[in-house]
Amino acid sequence: MDAEGGGLPGIESYNYQWSQAHPTAGYQNEATGGDAYAAFVAEEATCIGHRIAGQINIYSLRWGANDSTSDTAPSLAALPLHVARMKAAGFSILLVTLNPKADNAFNTWRATLRTLQLSMLSQGLVDGIADFGADQTYCKNADGFDTAMYSDGLHPNNTIHTYLQANYYAPAIAAITKPRYVVSW
Question: Where are the beta strands (DSSP E) in 15-159?
Fold first, then answer.
């Protein structure tokens, strides 16, 4: 997810808002709009390079937003492997589930991906989850079609980003531990 733009001009995403609310915690956003799973894997060394020895390093990962238009099996297979490599590099792992989109096939994909993510949490493969998919206020499948909430059918407005940051992202980070440095994709 784009850190400062949240995908649209004038939008401040949940992760950018978190970084602004925690100015003493290091923060590095590596996201580029349109990235699919292969970009996450290709940039592992860059993200690992941001790790600070002796500090608490959290890798916040919003996986799969751009993988629904292709064969999703490779993305599902790559996620646990990617997470394992980042964990082995010394990161605590925070998965972020997807918000809805004005696309029924995408919403089916996000449910499939969320099932895998929750399974990874229950197996102890990740340290926490910001489960936007559980939200019934702004993240029901039908909400993606509401242009007052998702003006382009994909990116939530500032109100939703603020809500998700306060109710899911910040508590998930706090539940892991007090962070010193967050790398967000």
Answer: 26-29, 57-61, 92-96, 128-130
The amino acid at 176? I
pTM (predicted TM-score): 0.87
3-class SS letters over 115-137: HHHHHHHHCCCCCEEECHHHCCC
CB burial of 109-142 (b: ≥16 within 10 Å; e: otherwise) equals bbeebbebbbebbeeebbbbbbbbbebeebbebe
Q: CA end-to-end span of the chain, whole Å?
A: 6
Residue type, 26: G
Q: What is the pLDDT of residues 16-41, one digit of tens each?
A: 888 888 888 888 887 767 788 888 89
